[in-house]
Structure formats: C-alpha cells, structure tokens
Amino acid sequence: QVQLVESGGGTVQAGGSLRLSCAASGRTFSTPNMAWFRQAPGKEREFVAAITWSGSTTDFADSVKGRFTISRDNTRNTVYLQMNNLKPEDTGVYYCAARASRGLVQSTNGYDYWGQGTQVTVSS
Question: What is the pLDDT of residues 26-78, one digit of tens each?
Fold first, then answer.
C-alpha cells in the first residue's frame, strides 16, 4: 500500500504562484511514477503533469506547459508541482497519484493510488 498526502493549496490571484507538495509513504518503491491531476466543479478529473522515478522524464498537459513544473525529492518521498502565472481556469481540486507500471500516462486509469486532494482557487 502507498499513502499520498497533498498540501500547499490555497487561494491566489490570477498571475500568482503556488507550490503543491505530495508526501508519499508505505511501499513507495513499488510506485515509481507520479502525477498530478485536477478536477474542477462539474468536470472530469484531468491530467496535469507526471514524472518518472529519476525525474529525467516529465509530461505536461498542453494547458499548463510553460507555466507548471513537476519535480521530486526521493530522499523525502515527495513530489512537487510548481504553478506559476496561474489562471482562473486552473481552479480545482488537485490530486497526487502514483503508478506502479512503467512509463508515464495521462489517463486516470493508469494510476494505482490517489491522495485526498488539495483545493486551488485562482481569483480573477
């Protein structure tokens, strides 16, 4: 089992920045690939960014490319999502997810464990 706990959400004005953290515990070595998803009210959960164990490979949704970065500190079992130049459409609950299989995927079905989410609100 792997437990994921997100933190760092909050309310920020458009153009501002936030950094989300996801702390993993348990059998973290079994789920090397990590990702962030988000879900706005009334919408489906959507992919935001993903990163491999080494951090050498990352993937981003087109809507966040150039504004968001994903990184990880394996000594702390923590994955980060740095969000810059935030827009109102970035508002939603942000979820951390862990994947046991190889490679990075953008589908929610590809991830085995999920955190409880952290709310991000961007005001205009």
Answer: 987 778 899 999 999 999 999 999 999 999 999 999 999 999 999 999 999 99
Q: Which residue has tokens 């920045």?
A: 17
Handedness of CA 69, 112, 115, 46 (dihedral sign): positive
Once rounded to an integer, what is the mean pLDDT over residues 107-118? 96
In the chain, the largest separation of any two C-alpha atoms, in whole Å, equals 41
Beta strands in 1-124 (DSSP E): 2-7, 10-13, 18-26, 33-39, 46-51, 58-60, 68-73, 78-83, 92-99, 113-114, 118-123
Least confident of 55-59, 99-103, 113-117: 99-103
Sign of the alpha-carbon torsion through 104, 110, 116, 120: positive
What single letter denotes the amino acid at residue 64?
V
Q: Residue 19: what residue type?
A: R
